[in-house]
Write a structure and sequence with these properties.
Elements lengths: L1 H14 L17 H11 L4 E10 L2 E9 L7 E6 L5 E2 L7
Antiparallel strand pairs: 1-2, 2-3, 3-4
Length: 95
Amino acid sequence: MKFFSLFASFLLLVCSPLQANPLHPPGHAKITKNEAEHIALKSFPGARVTAAKLETVQGQLLWSLQLVEPGKSEARSVAVDAVSGHIVPPAGQKP
């Protein structure tokens, strides 16, 4: 019985890192949704986030955010690299 208890404890210890962590988004993102929102809001003070979604665009893992700036009615799209944390410029623009 003691052996079984030790074995079960060993399995729990070894297998626990293999479980999904609900605090980290899927797809090996290093930047959380909350961090991506803070990064975007630093560039757009006073704005508020209305939507955020993790997606892969042309092989790059990105947080796609919708921000509404004060005094504006239309939302602005902002993409944050989910690995590096850098804001990704819109297609056709240089960083």
